[in-house]
Specification:
- The complex is a heterodimer of chains A (258) and B (448).
- With 258 residues, chain A is an alpha/beta fold.
- Chain A is built from 9 helices and 7 strands; from the N terminus they run βαβαβαβααβαβαβαα.
- Chain A has a single domain, classed as Rossmann fold (3-Layer(aba) Sandwich).
- In chain A, 48% of the residues lie in helices and 14% in strands.
- In chain A, α1 runs parallel beside α2 and α1 crosses α7.
- Chain A starts with 14 loop residues before the first strand and ends with a helix.
- In chain B, α9 runs antiparallel to α10.
- In chain B, the strands form 5 sheets. Chain B has an 8-stranded antiparallel sheet with strand order 16-13-15-14-18-19-17-20.
- Classes of the chains: A alpha/beta (258), B alpha+beta (448).
- Chains A and B meet through α2 of A and β3 and β6 of B.
Chain lengths: 258, 448
């Protein structure tokens, strides 16, 4: 079985372990990978959901049978066995994708300390722990791509996403460091920074300009994986939007409400 | 990991394709089984024209199914496919047509969900041969009003199964659909068109074409009057054989967006006349024949996204009536004469012969002719719809609920002797009428 070459291109299809493929942007990305002929192994919390998505991805053209194992971002003990099951089933590993995470509004997080602790734990601590397990296994197989969904919310401290943004800022910073530290050894770390995307997670939130669909994100991310990019904004216009926001002086950020 | 949350924006409204709207918000979730609990109605891509997919006023919520779109099983031997109800036909076409599979029945847009195709028991250009979508459905997974989730089929809970086909989502939430896809010899259509002089010739031409062609439909110039009343273009098609078809699949057509609403004067009588005249003249050669892609054959209007905006802010309605074979000869002519006499400019009129009664308790199609007329919303549109319905009653016909927004309940009751049977099914499966729509409140007499 041929792995990826230097340019991140693949000729037989990637072997992908995926945490978060049952819903939203994860579902869209996993489908694009299946259509490209990749072999997929799904990680997640609910066996029934994993089975349904596995069937869907097989219909979309995934190479071979799509296997699955239980893995819960709230349970760090579950990470290593699940990833081992993936390596075993796929006969190796080229890509690990993490799209799972929790979202809650600033107000909800301010009102509920327990929810806040859980979000910080899942979106930062446990996500990092998962990536560490994934990183070890990818390096053990000569490298590959670790693709993790962070958020544009981590780019600047902003009023509507102070707490969620802080967890994502931490995650993005970790991923950047990881990319610097291990790229020479063949590990490519792709930090995905989605802007506003219409999913069940964002249903009911007021829609800003440049809102995108999961499929736009999936296409952009897949291209970034192929090219070996380190950071990708999706949908694409968010790159320019965030370039502006990153350079706004604090005096302005204090006054605006985004 | 994500929480399902609903759109609860204050003062939000939901609308049908023709811009008919009602207060309401949608719950958007991947999990229909969880999301359907205590919901009055499910709704897919909102392509029904009127208020079929709008919730009742006292419970302004609908479950949006479009995130539940996974294919759960597909047997490439038999074509049997099972999927979540929110799967869009467009996605199914994109995925499976290149592999040689097509839906057994398609409506005139591919932006519909499987659940919606069952709920409206949609029909297409092959109605005279293959019946409706419901004819090809083998099983449905439903959430019924008492919160049970159960399978129904011709063998199991058959009353629920047949009631749900064409039942407009009023017997239960459709969670999963199983049906048989069809093998096609190529992704191309062989199409022939011919000009037809008037409505009487049209009825004859359709029934002649039905003998040799698996797919037929007619477009009518509804502005031409007198001897030309009902002139138009008859389109006939069949899947091209592998030998006839080019090596490459047809190009995906671009889908430009209409960025603004047309002003109301744009669809005045003169511009409609010009459009119809042009369309008719385009076929001045009298006959055309050749290969076309399925997109332009089945979904000519999908090319223009948001085409309802042509009708401006007030939107439009469609009147689609079935003129049964039992009606005295000339029923189509009498219907068009009403349109013509009232000067109701119709942008588009479509005529199709049907040969099979739908299997559903309330299925629209039956042997006869159906006429579909797009009618812009104006002050006199209600009166025009009333006149068309009164004529339809005299012919012994009925309307298609998926298109309707203006029919009066007394007309509906008079043209639907099957309603009593449907209400009996609702008494069995939903005695408290938890499942309702704005349309069922308007037409069936449900509480609001």
């Amino acid at each position: 079985m041929k792995h990826q070459n230097h340019a991140g291109q693949h000729d037989v299809g990637r072997r992908v372990a995926f945490l978060g493929a049952t819903r939203g942007m994860g579902r869209a990305l996993a489908r694009r990978m299946a259509e490209a002929g990749d072999a997929l192994f799904l990680l997640g919390r609910e066996a029934a959901e994993l089975e349904r998505s596995a069937a869907d991805l097989e219909a979309y053209g995934a190479r071979g049978q799509v296997g699955h194992a239980l893995c819960d971002l709230e349970q760090p003990d579950s990470f290593a066995p699940a990833l081992d099951a993936a390596v075993q089933a796929l006969g190796g590993l080229d890509v690990v994708v993490l799209t799972a995470g929790i979202f809650a509004s600033q107000q909800a997080l301010e009102d509920d300390a327990e929810l806040l602790a859980r979000l910080l734990r899942v979106d930062f601590t446990h996500s990092v722990l998962f990536c560490e397990e994934a990183r070890r296994r990818l390096l053990a197989h000569g490298g590959g791509t670790l693709c993790v969904f962070s958020s544009v919310a981590g780019e600047r401290g902003r009023k509507p996403v102070v707490l969620y943004g802080a967890s994502k800022a931490g995650l993005s910073s970790y991923l950047e460091g990881l990319d610097h530290r291990y790229r020479a050894e063949g590990l490519r770390v792709l930090t995905v920074k989605p802007g506003f995307v219409r999913t069940s997670m964002t249903a009911g939130l007021p829609e800003p300009p440049f809102a995108g669909d999961p499929d736009d994100v999936a296409r952009t991310v897949l291209r970034a994986i192929d090219r070996g990019q380190a950071v990708v904004y999706a949908p694409a216009p968010w790159r320019a939007v965030m370039a502006v926001i990153r350079h706004l002086p604090r005096s302005v950020m204090r006054r605006v409400n985004f | 990991m994500t929480k399902e949350r609903s759109k609860h924006a204050q003062g939000s409204r939901l609308s049908g394709w023709g811009r008919h709207s009602a207060p309401g918000s949608e719950l958007l979730t991947e999990n229909l089984e969880r999301g359907s609990a205590d919901m009055p109605l499910s709704r897919g891509l909102g392509r029904s024209y009127g208020d079929s997919s709008l919730p009742p006023a006292d419970k302004p919520f609908a479950l949006n199914t479009t995130l539940a779109d996974r294919i759960l099983a597909f047997d490439e031997e038999s074509g049997l496919l099972r999927a979540e109800a929110g799967l869009a036909l467009a996605e199914l076409n994109r995925l499976l047509l290149p592999r040689g599979w097509f839906t057994p029945v398609t409506p005139g847009t591919q932006y519909v969900t499987l659940g919606g195709m069952v709920a409206a028991d949609v029909h297409g250009k092959n109605q005279h041969v293959d019946g409706d979508f419901g004819d090809h459905v083998t099983r449905l997974l439903m959430r019924v009003a008492d919160e049970r989730v159960l399978w129904c089929s011709p063998e199991e809970h058959a009353d629920l199964f047949y009631g749900s086909i064409g039942g407009m989502g009023l017997l239960g939430h459709i969670l999963e659909v199983e049906f048989t896809m069809r093998r096609v010899p190529s992704p191309w259509i062989w199409q022939e068109t011919e000009r037809v002089a008037n409505i009487d010739a049209f009825e004859r031409a359709l029934s002649d074409a039905a003998k040799d062609w698996p797919m037929t439909v007619g477009w009518i110039d509804c502005v031409a009057g007198g001897a030309n009343l009902g002139r138009g273009i008859l389109m006939k098609g069949r899947w091209a054989t592998a030998d006839e078809a080019p090596k490459d699949p047809p190009h995906a057509l671009p889908r430009p967006k209409l960025p603004f609403d047309f002003p109301s004067w744009a669809l005045g009588r003169l511009s409609v006349r010009a459009f119809n005249e042009l369309y008719f003249r385009k076929h001045f050669r009298k006959e055309t024949r050749g290969l076309v892609g399925p997109q332009s054959f089945f979904y000519p209007l999908d090319v223009l996204r948001d085409w309802y905006r042509i009708y401006g802010q007030r939107g439009f309605t469609q009147w689609q009536g079935l003129l049964p074979r039992s009606a005295p000869p000339g029923a189509a002519r009498r219907t068009l004469e009403i349109l013509s006499a009232r000067g109701g400019a119709s942008f588009l009129a479509v005529i199709k012969d049907c040969n099979r009664a739908g299997v559903g308790t309330l299925s629209f199609p039956a042997p006869g002719i159906t006429l579909a007329l797009d009618i812009p919303m104006r002050d006199d549109t209600q009166a025009l719809i009333d006149a068309l319905n009164e004529q339809l009653l005299r012919e012994g016909g009925r309307i298609y609920l998926a298109k309707d927004s203006l029919t009066r309940p007394e007309h509906f009751h008079a043209m639907e002797p099957r309603l009593a049977e449907f209400e009996r099914l609702r008494d069995v499966w939903d005695p408290e009428r938890k499942l309702r729509s704005a349309q069922s409140v308007r037409l069936f007499g449900d509480r609001a």
